[in-house]
Amino acid sequence: MTISEITQAILNGTQTAEEITRYYLAQIAQKNPQINAFVEVFEADALAQAKAIDAKKARGEKLGVLAGVPVGIKDNILYKGHKATCCSKMLANYTAAYNATVVEKLLAADAVIIGRTNMDEFAMGSSNQTSVCGVVHNPVDTTRVPGGSSGGSAAAVAAGMVPAALGTDTGGSVRQPAGFCGIVGIKPGYGRISRYGVIAFASSADQVGVLAGNVADAATVMEVISGKDTHDSTSIESPVPHYTQEFTADLKGVKVGMPKGFLDGLNPTIKAQVEKAAQQLKAQGAELVEVDVPLAKYSAPCYYIITSAEASSNLGRYDGIRYGYAAPNAQGLADYYEKSRAPFGLEVKKRIIIGTYALTSERYEECFLKAMKVRELIRDDFKKAFSKVDVILTPTSPTTAFKIGQKDDNPLSLYLADLYTCQGNIGGLAGISVPFGKDENDLPIGVQFYGPILQEEKILNAAYHLEKAK
Amino acid sequence: MITKKDVELAGKLAKMSVSTEEADIYEGQLRALFGWVKDLAAVNTDEVKLTNVTLAAHTRKDQAITDLEAAAKLRAMFAQEMDGQAKVKKVL
What distance in Å separates the CA atoms of residue A125 and residue A130, rounded to the nearest whole number? Predict the structure, then answer.
């Protein structure tokens, strides 16, 4: 069911929130053993919430816009009284002491939080293979990865276990799994959604995003969770549009940027789908305009240096004193730190080492400072491009979903999975992946729209029209 | 060229123990990654100035304490103050 179908059914009285919740709990019970999208289901709490919504309706009170809609939350988003582990041994016993702002907003809109979803450990990964809770299987083909790091959220939506889920996106972690699983995933521009109560990975790039079955559902959830939050100084004071009311009849007057060189060397099937998408947009009135973002090709190395450096700082808090596992029987302070930080997995340790190395006095200028400066230039490139166009069209990923274990030996090839998505985090842009066609193995292909900060309505509208064309 | 010694040093700086097996794995992977990072040298960044905040849309404003009662409650929770700083118990 779509979000509007659920809320209408509850408003009309054809179904109760409890019935809806029980339906999705049954879907999870049936499908999760094979997919492993949820690491915990909050059955009792979800049913209690649903009953409270039904009682509210019975009293004649106004219901929120997500009344009775079950939503999954990624395991790095705090929900008071519930575990939030980042799918890491480091936080295996951590229970949230407060609600993330996005959770507060979901609850205020009468959504039902149904469980926490699997993810790459500390959101570091593009395939959901670094989770200590086990690999997530792509519902389209269970021998393949769902993408990552929000692979659990994407798989849960794609398998029909929830109509929508929250993820986080630091380098493509919402859009890439959305593309791999054939659903919609949106990452807003930096500052549109509060990150208060979201466990930090790389603070200059992290954003909460939405995964949903269609563009209108993604827009509805975006509308609920966006906006300034005094608890997060990076959130921006700006009115939140009614995104679903911003959908236009056609794309007349909309300029779609086609970045020069972005499709060179790309998998021919994916390239053909992006070109086809461009023609569909043109058929609906859009004007295709070639734009130049020459330095965007440096986004991936910048991304890996900057985010790893930030991670090495953010994850310093897991020292057994402030947060995380506390080692027993340590011999002195240095030993205590080392033993308490031992539960980090291989990928997390590697990123901390990359970041620490890039920040050493010997490497700081040539690595970290250089990457930060190139980032400024990349951002300028996008700013110039958006002075000419409304949105930019790109592939979401250079490949479709790959086999579980296929890229284990070559981490650089895994890092390249973020090639088209990490540009958005480096530039602070809004980005959305929308499914458009399939490859020769019947696997979904995602295409992506970028838009300027605080103009999410533009990418939602373009994605909405492409979805209709499909 | 990144060596195993660099990996071990970075691990030490990050207060993590890195086993020999891990150092072997990381050495090759980091060498490949930092080789890729060297591509950035081709970009002329001589005139680039870093901005403090990620985007110009963010504004700065002074944060004034408005809830004096809450501030007083917080301060009262500390056993002792010294030179305007709260004194807390030694942990280790």
Answer: 7
Q: pLDDT, tens digit, for every residue of A332-372? A: 999 999 999 999 999 999 999 999 999 999 999 999 999 99
What are the structural domain ranges in chain A? 3-246, 301-365
Contact of B55 with chain A, judged by CB distance below 8 Å, is answered with yes
In a domain, B28, yes or no: yes
Domain count along chain B: 1
The answer to whether A177 and A147 are in contact (CB under 8 A) is: yes
Tokens representing A177 are 């799994």
Q: Is A326 on the interface with B (CB under 8 A)?
A: no
Query: Is the ipTM of this structure higher than 0.85?
Result: yes
Separation in Å, CA of B49 to nearest CA in chain A: 7
A202 touches chain B (CB under 8 A): no
CATH 3.90.1300.10 fits A3-246, yes or no: yes
Angstrom distance (rounded) from CA A353 to CA A348: 9
- Classify residue B8: in a domain, yes or no: yes
Q: Please report residues of A whose CB lies closer than 8 A to that of B21.
A: none
Q: Which domain holds residue B23?
A: 4-42
pLDDT digits (tens, 9 = 90+) for A17-27: 999 999 999 99
Find how far residue A335's CA is from the centre of its chain. 36
Question: Which of A237, A301, A428 lies nearest to residue B36, judging by beta carbons?
Answer: A301
